[in-house]
Fold this sequence. Notes:
Elements: H1 2-30, E1 34-37, H2 44-55, E2 60-64, H3 72-76, E3 80-82, H4 88-97, E4 102-105, H5 111-116, H6 118-139, E5 142-144, E6 147-148, H7 172-191, E7 195-196, E8 198-200, E9 202-204, H8 217-226, E10 231-233, E11 241-245, H9 246-258, E12 270-271, E13 275-277, H10 279-289, E14 295-297, H11 301-309, H12 317-323, H13 331-345
Parallel strand pairs: 1-2, 1-4, 2-3, 4-5, 5-7, 6-8, 8-12, 9-11, 10-14
Antiparallel strand pairs: 11-13
Helix pairs in contact: 2-9, 4-6, 6-7, 8-10, 8-13, 10-13
Amino acid sequence: MIKIANSCLTLHLSQQRHKQILQLSYQTKKMKNVLIIGSTGQIGSELTMKLRSIYGSNNVIAGYIPGAEPKGELAESGPAEIVDITNAQQIADAVEKYKIDTIYNLAALLSAVAESKPLLAWKIGIGGLMNVLEVAREKHCAVFTPSSIGSFGPNAPKDGTPQDTIQQPKTMYGVTKVTGELLSNYYFTKFGVDTRSVRFPGLISYVTPPGGGTTDYAVDIYYAAVQGKPFSCPVKEGTFMDMMYMPDALRAAIEIMEANPDRLIHRNSFNIASMSFDPVIIYNKIKEYVPDFVMNYELDPLRQAIADSWPNSLDDTCARLEWDWKPEYDLDAMTRDMLEKLRIKFGIK
Length: 349
Ligand code: SER
């Protein structure tokens, strides 16, 4: 009895403490002024809205490039500025104008596009990151720059790829991601810039489609299923990759920037994971809810080669230990939500 009572008391106290921490962190959150570079992209369009709901609409600035202007809710809900990541002055001006303390650097070319435009991938991924880091150093900003499962290559362990292991990617995308991790760590140790990051898996969302990624098929497959179309899969059976539902990915990007720095042993970049599947597994899962759904294969050699060089699944123990990372969506929960939201989007009953 005594034991139970004590453990309840401990639980009660820890709940109280948790509340205090949340309140504290809420107060900290209120003070943030955030610039998002690449706010109209796959991640940016949703992260901007989420950050505005936490830190206040006027404190989250949507940076965009001409031709990719914010639209609809994104445009109406808060300030926007032209911020081309290859233009250091534009970054510095926006940081100065809005007294920015945190930069989310989401400008990048995805893996398959980066293979066809390697120079541009480097210019944006590394030239752009250097601009961000330099502005952050001068103006004391924290910086989030996503890395990826693509930062590993064929020499890393395939299953349960550890946090710290060989990173010898064979793609330009991966080369920019590893370099970005190293540069971000360098700016932290050398200049004290508060750089933090996660290695994103393939991200799945019903809001803004990705473009030119290797994991895009896992988004496209849902669009086909709700529209009653057969799906042509570009990667073959048995090709396992880590994937994640966007709400978990957004939470990861926010929680790592909110994490207590004293607990962080790693910074750039943390493995995070929630599910790993191959085309057959996701197809069978969708078929549970769309029984007449049909999938065939039309292999894309470039995407297949990229996928073959990436891990099957990452070990995210360090993220769990150092900042309490925990995903909420598994394949089933994601599939139900994706199908429901896409049906609403397309007006399908
Ligand atoms: N989703 C990315 C891609 O496929 C991987 O990080 O390029």
